[in-house]
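As a warm-up, study this chain.
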Amino acid sequence: MRCPLPQPLARHIAAHRPGARTSAGAVLLAVMAAGLVLTALSCNRASAKRQVAAAEVQRTETQTPEPTATPTPADPAATKPERIMIIGDSLGIALDPGLTDVGREWNFSILNRGGLFCGFLPADMMIDMTGHLSVQHEQQCQQWRNSWVWDAINYQPDIVLMIFGGWDYPDHIVNGVTLKTGTPEWKKYVLDHLQGILDKVVPPKGKLVLLTWPYPRPDLWLMLSDGGVAAEADARWRDDQLNALYRWFAEENPDRVSLIDLARFICPNGKFEDLYIDGVRMRYDGVHFTPEGSYVVARWLAPRIAAAAAGQIFPK
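Now compare it with the structure written out below.
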């Protein structure tokens, strides 16, 4: 099993120009760079439990017509597999092993193309695995983004399942110009790239399913002088900006795009919490799902993916 590192939020502060937004940025970057090495050495998670109790439905997420019945697991012998390609940051990787295993019960075939240290939005530089801003690493991220087109051609997914957040909601420096989160310029940049994914990655008869990104609180933020309070508040505001654009894009493209509100499931009270469901801790580092937690997420997520594939709303 690949072990996702608790790093995807480093760019939250470090991708800004020097002196931008928070004075804790330099400290946070140094702490996270050190934490990357420690995590890589110590990460040896136990095998995940293969059965976890299903989570309670929170609310309707998608914007398409009412279903005739609640989706149920498919009979693999009776139907062809529903091909699902995941594109995402390290939280996309952390959907497994749960989604691949639970997906078999729903006759899903999963191709997980999640990646580390990259978002879906290009920028002039990206933080590399040493914790430094790097043009070369951004070039590698762009090669990874470009590969989605060929993956889609070869795999022909019925659903492209997209989950991005911590690398994409910061300010972005593009061609030397800073696009500040929440501004019209930043919103246009995000929506243009969502449209690009819909046009170039999602097959003509396929659908794009957007997952909202849950509020983070990386454990390493607790080492900051204020215990991470300012960084968490800043991340929550930025996360809301990005998730709102996901919601708007789904509403504007109801025939081809659906939204599943994963953030509300993981943060039911509208803020980060160290959530346990049926005794299972959901996130081991304030960002990524535990292996056991990935099964809880998968059992909640699978019927909603099935509903989206069928053009239905998952009932309350």
